[in-house]
């Protein structure tokens, strides 16, 4: 699996017409994808089939924003990761803070969902992040460690493709991103924590940053050494912003790979 990714989380936005326009504008802005960086777009569930058609032949991949922790059964209103796989998804966002806040999802559920996603052949994008209160109380590492350990208690490191996303809850949708220094420190913490389980896996693990990334701050955030890409919300709904972030990531990745890092 490639290490550097740009993921657009479209959240509960869009409609058939707007999605096609946004996708076409992104596509014409990026042209052929650079070999160094891959892109995943995550529309709302009803538009996955539309997106499957749009991305065909472009190299852009699609992901879902959530999935059940079960593969099948009497779970009204839920969506199996097997169904997502059949619709062309390669990825699924798991444990997003908005689901923790509004749907009451917890660490254990995140682990079970990640396991079901892997069983279905999807790559889970595991979101972890602290609240402002937790950071202010000096509990960031306790919280991040607990969230990671809960997920990795269910999944193996050695064989599975997994992406981790650091999304501090206070930086999501606020317009105020974490500083590059904070992002680097927390990514290094997450990598080291996983390294306690499996050092080789930790080295090749993709860790994305998400939280108010935009064109103007992308280069400084994404060039931090333990940052392997971005998980973008609001700016993913604006083609020129998203394309600029993609280009910034391609540039920092090329520089990093040229240095052999
Ligand atoms: P914003 O980029 O709007 O802060 O959202 C980030 C996010 O939640 C991505 O999953």
Automatic annotation (TrEMBL):
Coiled coil: none annotated. The active site is at 96 (electrophile), 167 (proton acceptor). Transmembrane segments: none annotated. The gene is tpiA. Keywords: Cytoplasm, Gluconeogenesis, Glycolysis, Isomerase. InterPro entries: Aldolase_TIM, TIM_sf, TrioseP_Isoase_bac/euk, Triosephosphate_isomerase. PANTHER family: TRIOSEPHOSPHATE ISOMERASE (PTHR21139:SF42). Substrate binds at residues 9-11, 173, 212. This is Triosephosphate isomerase. PROSITE patterns: TIM_2. It comes from the Bacteria. It comes from Viridibacterium curvum. Gene3D superfamilies: Aldolase class I (3.20.20.70). Homodimer. It catalyses: D-glyceraldehyde 3-phosphate = dihydroxyacetone phosphate. Pathway: Carbohydrate degradation; glycolysis; D-glyceraldehyde 3-phosphate from glycerone phosphate: step 1/1; Carbohydrate biosynthesis; gluconeogenesis. Involved in the gluconeogenesis. Catalyzes stereospecifically the conversion of dihydroxyacetone phosphate (DHAP) to D-glyceraldehyde-3-phosphate (G3P).
């Amino acid at each position: 699996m490639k290490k550097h990714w740009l993921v657009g989380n479209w959240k509960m936005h869009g409609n058939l017409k707007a999605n096609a326009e946004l996708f076409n504008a992104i596509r014409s802005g990026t042209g052929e994808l650079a070999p160094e960086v891959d892109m995943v777009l995550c529309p709302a569930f009803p538009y996955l089939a539309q997106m499957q058609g749009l991305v065909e032949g472009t190299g852009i991949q699609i992901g879902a924003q959530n999935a059940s922790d079960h593969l099948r059964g009497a779970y009204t209103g839920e969506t199996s990761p097997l169904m997502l796989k059949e619709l062309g998804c390669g990825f699924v966002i798991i444990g997003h803070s908005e689901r923790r806040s509004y749907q009451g999802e917890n660490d254990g559920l995140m682990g079970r969902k990640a396991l079901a996603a892997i069983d279905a052949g999807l790559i889970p994008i595991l979101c972890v992040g602290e609240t402002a209160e937790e950071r202010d109380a000096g509990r960031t590492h306790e919280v991040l460690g607990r969230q990671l350990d809960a997920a990795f208690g269910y999944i193996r490191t050695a064989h599975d493709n997994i992406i981790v996303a650091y999304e501090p809850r206070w930086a999501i949708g606020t317009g105020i991103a974490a500083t590059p220094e904070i992002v680097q420190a927390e990514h290094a913490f997450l990598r080291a924590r996983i390294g306690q389980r499996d050092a080789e896996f930790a080295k090749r693990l993709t860790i994305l940053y998400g939280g108010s990334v935009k064109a103007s701050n992308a280069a400084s955030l994404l060039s931090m050494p333990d940052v392997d890409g971005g998980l973008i919300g609001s700016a993913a709904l604006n083609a020129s912003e998203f394309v600029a972030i993609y280009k910034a990531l391609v540039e920092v990745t090329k520089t990093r790979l040229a240095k052999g890092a």
